[in-house]
Design goal:
The complex is a heterodimer of chains A (367) and B (691). With 367 residues, chain A is an alpha/beta fold. Chain A has 2 domains: 136 residues, Winged helix-like DNA-binding domain superfamily/Winged helix DNA-binding domain (Arc Repressor Mutant, subunit A, Orthogonal Bundle); 215 residues, Dna Topoisomerase Vi A Subunit, Chain: A, domain 2, CATH 3.40.1360. Chain A is 42% helix and 17% strand. Chain A contains 13 helices and 17 strands. In chain A, the strands form 6 sheets. Chain A has a 6-stranded mixed beta sheet, sandwiched between helices. In chain A, strands 9-8-11 form a 3-stranded antiparallel beta sheet, with no helix packed on it. A two-stranded antiparallel ribbon of chain A has the order 1-4. In chain A, β2 and β3 form a beta hairpin. In chain A, α3 packs across α4. With 691 residues, chain B is of the alpha+beta class. Chain B folds into 5 domains: 97 residues, no CATH class; 206 residues, 2-Layer Sandwich (Heat Shock Protein 90), CATH 3.30.565; 71 residues, Helicase, Ruva Protein, domain 3; 161 residues, 2-Layer Sandwich (Ribosomal Protein S5, domain 2); 80 residues. Chain B contains 21 helices and 15 strands. In chain B, the strands form 2 sheets. An 8-stranded mixed beta sheet of chain B has the order 5-4-3-6-2-1-7-8. In chain B, α9 packs antiparallel against α15, α12 packs across α14 and α18 packs across α19. Classes of the chains: A alpha/beta (367), B alpha+beta (691). The structure holds adenosine-5'-triphosphate and magnesium ion (MG). Magnesium ion (MG) binds next to α6 and α8 of chain B.
């Protein structure tokens, strides 16, 4: 067995305790259960002071002797067992892989422990909240995407990597970026820029924006995965660097920003470790179309889905600030949305040479 | 013929059938085209005899006519210009009395001898019904042997079974009281001779036609006389007869009469009939008749011997004879005008008051006074006057109808009873129970026989300790490995047209009955199975009109319900109102239909309770199954996590599975429901975090 670091030991211990509680209940003639904080909108609230979406205190007891819960109870322990084995073996694997590890036929029936990955993924999330352990601490990772460059040197599982010399593709952000994997060695960055899209990030890299501006640029291919968000959060909190977010001018772009800022509903339990309440929205703003004279022919018409989403966002507690209400209302009013690429209409490097520098100079952002 | 008419008029409460008969006699003066029976049979009647255990195909040739009346179409078309053909005098020369046996010869379908397949069943049925009646009346537990011999086979049973029509011998033997020597010729050689017609008492036979009609059928088709052996008691000699019928005169001709030195029965009767029959096509009906007779007569032992098949026995399920049915006098409310006149004419009473009191049941002096007062006769009226004067009779008849009279006594009825109906059903199911799906075309009884062969194996298995079942639910019977729910209802006696009757309904649900087929409806009248004319029978209509969906069965509109069930309906009455002499269908009297429905509903409520309980239990078992399925997995995982052996953990779980009480589960379920209600309120996930 590999020597375990403190975190891994602790996580393995938590899993053992969970199992022992069950054994004790059963011996005592009690219906065994696992207590799981409920991960739903009903049990999520916005903490105004900390400016984070937090999980409420509602908990659900998952009993074994309950027809509707028995299978999930069983699955919870199959996943627990697999994770404990991963931790003790010093291995990390994808959640897809875990699905295959734990999937098998039950007895001599035609039933499987898991029929689809859709069944095992939520069990992993349940286990995370039940154990109060991050997915990474369970030695699991989701699909990986996202890249980063900037004036910073890091150490990734012992390898020192200079992110100033990553060529055109940048450094691929791993799924697990905890302290035991990624260490920050030295840097001269002044801020972090999280870009929604890979294509736009490439423009910034090619134009050596990060070099000129002394900033770290990241992209997460749309909604950034946990690895990217966790890394941004660490860079922000450990290196005290401000975070700017550059997304499309559409409800989805706003949502990406809001998740980076105060966490998501679904992963509310990890907000503290993933969210940066101070993150700043630098664009595209609903008012940029006028400010930067974007012709209407680069706009896209909002569809019903966009409109509904926008209206929902107007009601979110974390979008109640006056400036955000204005921002979203303007989008709804105009019925138009803009992609970041729309700025290229003003020149291919307009975004790196004029748009963003001006935004930062004018402190033209939203918080 | 005169006597026939007299008795017809005397028959109380059966006006419809009797009137029909009278009508027929007139119609039959003209010879009927020989093919009539066939022509009519070809019309697909709706009352196809039902498959035995869902396998039987309808047998078109066995479908009797729905209505035994002449078809006027055959007399058409009318000539354009009618011309006188015969004078009244010419016609008078041809007019003569028609003997009942001549009549029968031409109208055998009316008595159930339509064709060789059906004639086989009818012959057996008439003899068996008589045996059962006789035993019951004498207070003897019946033991009856039914034998069918194929004369196409050699003396040692060699050769091939007769295909289709052929000669057969039917033998029915009983341990009844026997028949006194002097009576035998008339019983077997004269139609309309019997002991049951002139009295009001529940019995299988009622007309005095049955066995002599069978004898006549045999004689007509094979030329052979009926052979009868009978003995009335120990120390008395047994007699053997061969009796023919002079069909012109309807009189017996004894062709052989000898005393036997020895006979194997102390008392009883054996009748042998040689007939043209179709065993191949008709045996399924005989099988069904035998099965159902055993079912409705749990006090009888029946042996059944058939060509090329091992003997089959239905042992009696009870040692108790049915309650004796007492003979009663007719009830005034059931009497027809004509019958009233006849009775009055025959009365020896001095006045109408006395006549009413002596001839009818439930007429006290006070009631008689009331009737007479209401009739408001002018001057002195003797019973004889009523018998002769139609106007007087009508006055009296109306007065009777207007007077409230206590219902007739019901001790004349002998229902099967709840308990025996149940036992009958159980032993019936024991014989017909088959294992697995019924794919083949085999007959019920053959399968039953096969089951018997494996009885030993079963017994051996049963001896081995098994995982104990849940305590059996009340009313559930395990029969050859299948669970049947059995419920029975006996209604209190009721009256239609002055005739007491009583309805009983029993059902067997579940087991191996097919769940996706219409239920099996077993109809009985005075313990006799009714196998034909299902669609024309009031019983069927009453069951179809009952809304079985209330009792958790599905039911297509206007049909029998669908489900794994056999439903037994028995009507016991001093006079069952059949729709024809073949005694195949019960007439649609509203009083009777209503009673059948009430009984069916009562039974249905018991059934619904059972189905609900069963659904609950199924759910429980399913639940338990789910737990057991997952316990293995959970124990394994927890064992690995905690580094302990999974076996003891598994045992603890299993132990707890037994303990977890229903209440706990319910509570947990309720909590879950609450939870899921909350969860469904949660909006659909619009964003996908990780992808
Ligand atoms: N096996 C028997 N043992 C004793 N008596 C018998 C037996 N068979 C017939 N009888 C007597 O013979 C009579 C005539 O029988 P038959 O079958 O002809 O008419 P039924 O039974 O009275 O009426 P149905 O025509 O309705 O059958 C019966 O009423 C009965 O008294
Ligand atoms: Mg008879």
């Amino acid at each position: 067995m590999a020597r375990l670091d403190a975190v891994s030991k602790q996580t393995a211990h938590k899993i053992e305790k969970l199992a022992e509680t069950v054994v004790r209940s059963v011996k005592g003639g009690k219906n065994p259960f696992v207590e799981i904080p409920i991960r739903s909108l009903a049990n999520v609230k916005f903490n105004e002071k900390r400016r984070l979406i937090e999980l409420g205190s509602q908990r659900q007891k998952r009993y074994f002797f309950n027809v509707a819960m028995a299978k999930k109870f069983m699955q919870t322990f199959l996943v627990s067992d697999a994770c404990k084995e991963l931790i003790e073996g010093g291995k990390t694997t994808s959640i897809r892989d875990l699905y295959y590890i734990t999937k098998h036929t039950i007895g001599d029936t035609k039933q499987n422990t898991f029929e689809e990955q859709d069944e095992s993924d939520p069990i992993i999330e349940d286990l995370e909240v039940a154990l109060d352990a991050l997915r990474e601490e369970l030695h699991l990772f989701a699909s990986r995407k996202g890249s980063m460059v900037g004036p910073i040197t890091i150490r990734d599982t012992g390898d020192t990597i200079d992110l100033r010399r990553m060529g055109s593709g940048g450094w691929a952000v791993p799924s697990i970026v905890e302290e035991n994997v990624i260490e920050f060695v030295r840097h001269e960055a002044k801020y972090i820029l999280l870009i929604e899209k890979d294509a736009v990030w490439t423009r910034f890299n090619e134009d050596k924006f990060w070099k000129r501006e002394k900033c770290i640029i990241l992209q997460g291919g749309g909604q950034p995965p946990r690895g990217v968000r966790r890394l941004v959060q660490r860079l922000h909190s450990e290196l005290k660097l401000p975070v700017y977010v550059l997304v499309d001018n559409d409800p989805w772009g706003f949502y990406i920003y809001s998740v980076m800022k105060q966490g998501s509903i679904n992963l509310a339990y990890e907000s503290m470790r993933m969210a940066v309440p101070d993150a700043r929205f630098v664009g595209l703003s609903s008012f940029d179309k006028d400010k930067y004279k974007l012709p209407t022919n680069v706009a896209i018409k909002m569809d019903d889905g966009d409109n509904n989403r926008a209206k929902q966002m107007l009601a979110y507690p974390w979008f109640q600030a006056k400036q955000w209400q204005r921002e979203i209302q303007e989008m709804v009013r105009s019925g138009l949305k803009f992609e970041l690429e729309a700025l290229s209409r003003r020149g291919i490097s307009f975004i790196t040479e004029e748009y963003l520098p001006k935004k930062l100079r004018d402190r033209d952002w939203l918080e | 013929m005169a006597s026939r008419k007299a008795t017809a008029a005397k028959g109380k409460g059966r006006p419809a059938a009797r009137a029909e008969k009278a009508q027929l006699e007139l119609v039959q003066v003209e010879p009927t085209p020989a093919r009539r029976g066939a022509a009519r049979a070809a019309k697909a009647a709706p009352a196809a005899p039902r498959r035995a255990r869902s396998r039987e195909e309808p047998e078109p040739e066995l479908l009797p006519a729905a209505e035994p009346v002449a078809e006027p179409e055959e007399e058409a078309p009318a000539a354009p210009k009618p011309r006188r053909r015969a004078t009244a005098e010419q016609m008078a020369a041809k007019q003569r009395e028609i003997s009942i046996s001549e009549f029968f010869t031409k109208n055998r379908h009316l008595l159930g001898f339509d064709n060789p397949s059906k004639a086989l069943l009818t012959t057996i049925k008439e003899a068996v019904d008589n045996s059962l009646d006789a035993c019951e009346e004498a207070g003897i537990l019946p033991e009856i042997t039914i034998e069918v011999r194929d004369l196409g086979l050699g003396p040692k049973g060699e050769g091939d079974l007769t295909k289709g029509e052929g000669r057969f011998v039917v033998v029915i033997e009983d341990n009844g009281p026997g028949i006194v020597k002097a009576q035998a010729p008339k019983i077997f050689g004269k139609l309309l001779y019997g002991s049951k017609f002139h009295r009001l008492k529940q019995s299988r036979g009622q007309q005095g036609i049955g066995i002599s009609a069978a004898a006549m059928y045999g004689q007509l088709t094979t030329g052979q006389p009926i052979r009868v052996t009978s003995r009335t008691g120990k120390g008395k000699p047994a007699h053997f007869f061969e009796i023919q019928i002079d069909t012109r005169k309807n009189n017996p001709v004894v062709t052989e009469d000898r005393q036997l030195d020895e006979w194997h029965l102390e008392h009883g009767t054996r009748v042998e009939l040689e007939i043209v029959a179709n065993w191949q096509a008709g045996q399924r009906f005989v099988n069904r008749y035998v099965e159902h007779t055993a079912l409705s007569n749990p006090h009888a032992t029946v042996h059944y011997l058939r060509p090329r098949q091992a003997p089959l026995s239905f042992p009696r399920a009870t040692e108790e004879l049915p309650k004796e049915a007492v003979e009663i006098k007719p009830h005034p409310h059931g009497v027809e005008l004509g019958a009233l006149m006849l009775m009055a004419a025959e009365s020896k009473a001095r006045d109408v008051r006395g006549f009413l009191q002596t001839a009818f049941s439930r007429v006290s002096g006070q009631v008689a006074d009331e009737i007479v007062k209401r009739a408001a006769f002018k001057g002195r009226v003797r019973p004889r006057d009523v018998g002769e004067d139609r106007a007087l009779a009508e006055k009296l008849h109306r007065a009777i109808g207007a007077t409230k009279i206590m219902n007739p006594p019901t001790n004349c009825l002998s229902p099967i009873g709840d308990e025996l109906m149940k036992r009958g059903l159980i032993s019936f199911l024991n014989v017909v129970e088959t294992e697995g799906p019924e794919a083949d075309e085999q007959l019920d009884l053959d399968q039953a026989k096969k089951k018997k062969a494996s009885k030993k194996e079963k017994a051996a298995k049963a001896a081995a300790p098994e995982v104990p079942d849940a305590p059996p639910e009340e009313g559930v019977e395990k029969i050859k490995g299948h669970n049947y729910f059995i419920a029975t209802v006996t209604r209190p006696p009721k009256v239609y047209r002055g005739n007491p009757f009583q309805v009983e309904v029993g059902l067997a649900y579940g087991g191996s009955w097919p769940a996706d087929k219409p239920i099996e409806l077993f109809r009985f009248a005075n313990r006799v199975p009714l196998l034909f004319q299902r669609g024309a029978c009031g019983t069927t209509e009453a069951i179809v009109k009952t809304d079985w969906r209330n009792y958790l069965l599905s039911q297509p509109k206007g049909s029998l319900p669908v489900g794994p069930m056999a439903l037994l309906v028995h009507i016991a009455s001093v006079w069952v109102p059949f729709t024809s002499e073949a005694k195949e269908a019960v007439a649609h009297y509203p009083e009777i239909m209503r009673e059948i429905q009430l009984a069916a509903q009562e039974c249905g409520r018991k059934l619904a309770a059972h189905i609900r309980k069963k659904q609950h239990l199924d759910y429980q078992a399913q639940r338990r199954g789910i737990f057991e399925l997952y316990i293995q997995e959970v124990a394994q995982a927890i064992g690995k996590i905690t580094g302990k052996s999974p076996e003891p953990i598994k045992r603890e779980f299993l132990r707890l599975a037994d303990q977890v009480t229903e209440a706990d589960l319910k509570e947990a379920d309720a909590a879950l429901e609450e939870q899921s209600r909350k969860l469904t309120k949660r909006p659909r996930r619009a964003e996908n975090e990780d992808e």
